[in-house]
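Researcher: We're reviewing a set of sequences before deciding which ones to prioritize for further study. For each one, I'd like a predicted 3D structure that I can look through quickly. This is histidine kinase. If possible, include the structure in token form so it fits the rest of the review sheet.
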Amino acid sequence: MIRSIRWRLVLAGGLAIALALALSGMGLAVLFERHVERVAVADLQARALALAAMVQPEAETGARLRAPPDDPLYDQPFSGHYWQVMLGSELRRSRSLWDYTLPSDQPAPAPGETAVRTLPGPRGEPLLAVEQSLVAGREAVPLRIILASDRDELALARRGFLGDLLPYLGLLGAMLLLASWVQITVGLRPLRQVGARVAALVSGGRPRIGQDLPTEVIPLATQIDELLDARDRELGRARHRAANLAHGLKTPLQALLGDAAELEARGEVEIARNIEAVAQQMRRHVDRELARARLQSGRDAQSAEPGRITTRLIGVLRRTPLGAGIDWRLSAPPGLAARIGPDELTEALGALLENAMRHARGTVRISARRKDGRILIAIQDDGPGVPEAELERLTQRGLSLDPSGEGQGIGLAVVADIVDAAQGELRLRNAHPGFLAELHLEAAPPAFQGAAPSPFPKSP
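Model: Here's the predicted structure for histidine kinase, in token form for your review sheet.
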């Protein structure tokens, strides 16, 4: 999972969302606490003004405090709501303070001003306190009013707010994570499209990736297409060099065989046969390299119809002395196409049909059909078959089991090379009676089916 771009992006997005929501929750909690504190301060200021009505001016003393208004909130001892009024030396306290006096050691604010402080309560708890300073009467007697409330109520309100907020933050986080997953999926879809086109390249559905892609992945597609072009050019040059080398050796070998025949005519039989054996072995190598050079190594999108090619090959073989006496039985539905070049399939089927013709007693059966999404081509003769010990060695170059000695021992090896290049499979076994050769090839993509085979099939 750590190598997945999708999961890396999801993990990074999830962490970013979690961090953002955590910071948002903390910020909202701070803002809520400040808002609640401002509301509490405003309420305490309003109550302070109501307590200022306790001051009654008098001609003799200048002012005095009368009985406070009834308020059950301040009558219950240690209720968390307290007030304290000092007029000159006279001190009045709410019943809730009991025998506790709020500390007033800090300087009083200027007359008409308000100060917000944190004071210790009767039980040591922190209190949010608002202190109002006024002057009363003609004598300008200083009036100091302190109203306080327990800060635990503010903390309780904050916790309640967070308790209500967290489910919504969780829901918001889940929605953002889902949106992030959708965004990542949509964003990575072009990569999946490139992957599908690469798979189409392998299967032969496309010759190149193309440029009809999102802008961000076009450079990648261009580089891949250029790499494929360079590979095809290099493989083409390699095939040409191999073909040129094989053709260059074929003529001298033919001359060497002619010299061996001349030596044999002069009576140098042993030397002639040694030269001929070496030349024949070298010729088999050359013929095989010529066949390999004809293979389509570029894996371009091609298709070939086994029925058409087999029909033409049978027509050629029937004109030979051996083929004229064979009962050729072909069963292949029209339109069946394998993903292989027509020339390559002609080369492979020609070798297999010629092999079946040499070993058959009188009948060769050929069938082509679709099986498990692939094309199965079966060629069976009614001959004696092959010794079981030799089955695994049939595709080895130079091995010929033809009792007449006409075979060169490269036909099945070439067929194996052709099928392997087409990413297919060659299976050989005894059919009791006879010998069975099966070609398992990939089916051609629908867009390439119906391609015409080579108009000039190779002579087997």
